[in-house]
Write a structure and sequence with these properties.
- Helix content is 40%, strand content 22%.
- The protein is built from twelve helices and 14 strands.
- A six-stranded mixed sheet has the order 1-2-3-4-10-12, sandwiched between helices. A four-stranded mixed sheet has the order 7-6-5-11, with no helix packed on it.
- Strand 3 and strand 4 form a beta hairpin.
Length: 316
Amino acid sequence: MKLISKMIIKQADSKVKDLEILCRLLQSPDLLPQKRQNIEQHLRLIRSGIKGEAESAYQLQFHFGNHPDWVIIHDLRLKYQGKVAQIDHLLINRYLQIFVCESKRVAGSLIINEQGEFSRRYEGNEQGMPSPVEQNRRHISLLNNLLHSELIQLPGRFGWKLRPSLYSLILISNNTYIRRPKNPVSGLSSVIKNEQLQTKIQQLSKHSRIFGIIRKVSSISIQTFARQLVQLHRSARYDWPSYFGLNKPVSQLTDSVIVTHTQLQTENLSTKTHYFCSDCHKNITGSVVYYCHNHKNIFGGKTYCYQCQQKFNNNN
């Protein structure tokens, strides 16, 4: 039996249970139209998030998942000093460079104006959206404070603790059109498409290679450091009925719940909590299942873990 790559320290948490509960809430006969609309909107956001993170995760794992100089953490939720950071992806190398990646899947066009404000346009309708640049800055601020606390033991060289360098990357889905302002705006160089990830990482990490002899720590050290962060992960738990003011016990919605494939409408994802690779039979995440089902021309409709996917990539 093959082992999971040591370079991928954590996969994304499953959101199947949240989808199950929200779908069951939509079946409530006394549901008011406004609440139904809110629930449907949350379902769309969760599904869109799953797709966006799956696309970014694949790029990260394809380029860095089997590299001894890198480790990857997906879906890391940190709480520190009363604040929370929900980080989509962390990419860390042996020079202690940490790339904090925020995934965004935008249907239609992503528009950024001269003030650095973000909006999305779809089918002629334009709507403002929170700035992912500012969002990621808050994530990096919390992470930086956490790294300076006693909760994390930083890797060291020659008796000295090394301070990480943190970089922000906003990963946009490849099929999104991005309209940028004519004049430079601070932070927008971090906004790239998923397909540009490897090139951008190479540009940002090039400088550290000059001081590689001094700063480069062992693969074991960087894995240990990453696992410390994962140990601080706190999964999100949502009481969806109370959130929408329905006040129905969650147990009534989850006990013996069977949600059909059509009800979930999750792009051919089943509602099972566990998925398995068709080749080596190890556990895989829902995002991996999603990727394989959306590339049936490559994988023949079967699901494969990242390592087994490489066989197909090598054959192409």
